[in-house]
Amino acid sequence: MNQLPEYIGDVPNISGHEAELEKVVARGRTRTLFADRGGIDFGAIRSATAIALHQHQPLIPAGGGDLRTAALISNLQHMMHNQHIGDNYNAPAFVWCYKRMGEFIPQLVGEGKSPRCMLEYSGTLLHGLRKMGENHVIDALKTITCNPDYNWAAEWLGMPWGHAVAPSTPVQDYRLHVRAFQHHFAAIFGWEALERVRGFSPSEMALPNHPDVAYEFVKTLVDCGFQWVLIQEHSVQQVSNARHPERPHIPHRLVCTNSKGETASIIAIIKTQGSDTKLVAQMQPWYEAQGLNRVELAGKSIPPLVTQIADGENGGVMMNEFPGKFMEVASLSSHSANPMMNASEYLEHLFAMGIKESDFPEIQPIFHDRIWARIQPGDGPEKLAKAIEKLKQEDGRFHMEGGSWTNDLSWVKGYDNLLGPMEEASSIFNEKVLRPGVSTDHPSYRNALFHLMASQTSCYRYWGQGEWTDYGREICRRASEIVQRDFA
User: Residue 329, Cβ neighbours under 10 Å: how many?
Assistant: First the structure.
């Protein structure tokens, strides 16, 4: 297959090669890609640690004085040009944070160590780095992604291209984000690198818990070829007894059934609760893993996996403490009874032992037990809506806004002035672009999709009312205007 161009005009390559993508991803799933090269004696170790770094910068209409005409630029670029405002002086440090794994891993491997790290970068960040001319960052990432001397140590995770939160993003749009990320990643790093992207990291760890949305979320990941998904511990419950996962350090199977009675499932790797950035910055998961021993699963003895994810650049601890601690733990853990591993590598070892996906305990999103106690799968969306409404009236804590990294954050409440324009942009795109079946490699399709996905970034809601909601509304306006103009 030919290498994809990274840009088509001014827009990143985010659509138009769906058939090739499916073939590449399917081919990757048939091969052992990590276990043979990681050098770990899986039968001898006691436990393992997996860490993931989440990296994201949104696109904002700030390339000029007038909000309605300002160029859409990376928030990082805006920070870089306005370092006198607030904490924008961190911009150069952020750039290094985005690059540094590309330096750490080759250094450690050169010293005979066995480092590991999972990486999750949003499409808006990768695009922003390119447009800022920070090509050295992407070149460093290419080294650990494409060079076989290092790529066994760095595992990339898929994510929604524009950092959209799954519980409140229309399901058809979320699928476009997932596919767009695969396109963009393959265009930067090549088809062979895409074969190795098997895990998925939902933005803000937000898992939909509305049964119909949760089903579509899992079905999207399975249809796009993902093998597993990273899940926050308190956003799920065991199917058997509705408790939080009692064995969070072994893989689970996330099972979602919708109101029509359809079921979709995917392997879930559980990220345990805690203050993520401090835990990862100080490599706490490794210290936790040292206190664990092998456990029994399906009649076999397996090492538990302690998994954590954190923003790779956010906060002083990640900027300043993480580098030294990562290097120290990578050295201490290498060739030990408690090594660092990546999740796909860990799963490959489990399957090589004869363990099957069906051996993993089943989990479902929170509150599903209470819904299915009232109605039956197959009763349809109308009965589901009535059951949800009744449960909300009976219990103020019951909600269908999804579980995320924090229990007290709503992606919906207080954001009606933004959700309206978001829903309008999505609806217009659906009506004028998706339903008529406009070709995904048409330049106008790609441009409209780019703006739609940029408008659905979580930051416009997470940061509260004010400037950020203004940014979000403006990008929604542009997305709607582009569709109305180009697909009249």
Answer: 21
